[in-house]
């Protein structure tokens, strides 16, 4: 999660909005040209963006500190037990 004001996006995004399992409204942003997923935002949580790590030009500063949706982790991608885990979405 990144504060919105710390995020610089070059180019236009296309958004697709769905209702989350908890009733929140989640908008997912994709590259307008190639369709790559770039970020998500929860409309009920102002000022934060959930950035897809693979979309970053420089990820050297990235510090992973949480697991999300650990309840649906697959055996081939186990949860890092040393990190804080949310079984689903964090409470809004």
Basic shape = globular
Strand count, sense and barrel status of the largest sheet are:
5 strands, antiparallel
Mean pLDDT: 90
The largest sheet has its strands arranged as 1-5-4-3-2
Protein name: CENP-V/GFA domain-containing protein
Pfam family, one: GFA
Keywords: Metal-binding, Zinc
InterPro entries: CENP-V/GFA, Mss4-like_sf
Folded structure, characterized:
The protein is mainly β and 92 residues long. The protein has no helices and seven strands. Strands 1-5-4-3-2 form a five-stranded antiparallel beta sheet, with no helix packed on it. A hairpin with a 5-residue loop joins strand 4 and strand 5. The model has no long low-confidence stretch (mean pLDDT 90). Belongs to the Gfa family. It holds the Pfam family GFA.
What's the arrangement of secondary structure elements?
Layout: E1 2-3, E2 13-19, E3 25-31, E4 37-42, E5 48-51, E6 66-67, E7 84-85
Parallel strand pairs: 6-7
Antiparallel strand pairs: 1-5, 2-3, 3-4, 4-5
Organism: marine metagenome
Domain CENP-V/GFA: 1-71
InterPro entries: CENP-V/GFA (IPR006913), Mss4-like_sf (IPR011057)
């Amino acid at each position: 999660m990144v504060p919105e004001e710390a995020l610089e996006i070059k180019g236009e995004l296309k958004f697709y909005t769905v209702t989350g399992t908890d009733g929140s409204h989640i908008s997912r942003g994709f590259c307008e040209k190639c369709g790559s997923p770039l970020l998500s935002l929860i409309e009920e949580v102002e000022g934060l963006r959930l950035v897809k790590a693979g979309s970053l030009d420089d990820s050297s500063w990235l510090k992973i500190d949480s697991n999300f949706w650990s309840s649906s982790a697959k055996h081939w991608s186990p949860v890092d037990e040393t990190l804080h885990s949310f079984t689903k979405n964090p409470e809004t």
